[in-house]
Design a protein that fits this description.
The protein has 82 residues and is an all-alpha fold. Helices cover 61% and strands 0% of the residues. The protein starts with 13 loop residues before the first helix and ends in a 5-residue tail after the last helix.
Length: 82
């Protein structure tokens, strides 16, 4: 059972809604992953986390698909929800 109340997409407004839309567009998903919804109570934190995520996934010498696989495996090992 989660201990952090997530910001649902249907209730997101303003800057949070804009970031959610960008997340879905860039990730190519129909939903906002739970890790972003958990920090969305503070739009500044969501923005900082999203910028950091993009920098990590786009930069460096490891290809993005490899980073995505690593993230998926780590999430599965930690029993994370979608």
């Amino acid at each position: 059972m989660p201990t952090i109340k997530l910001v649902a997409e249907r209730t997101a407004t303003g800057r949070v809604r804009e970031i959610y839309d960008e997340i879905k567009t860039i990730l190519g998903t129909a939903f906002v992953p739970v890790n972003f919804r958990a920090v969305a109570h503070n739009p500044d934190h969501l923005e900082a986390y999203w910028q950091q995520y993009k920098a990590i996934m786009e930069g460096g010498s490891v290809a993005k698909p490899i980073k995505e696989i690593i993230a998926m495996v780590v999430s599965a090992l930690n029993n994370c929800a979608a």
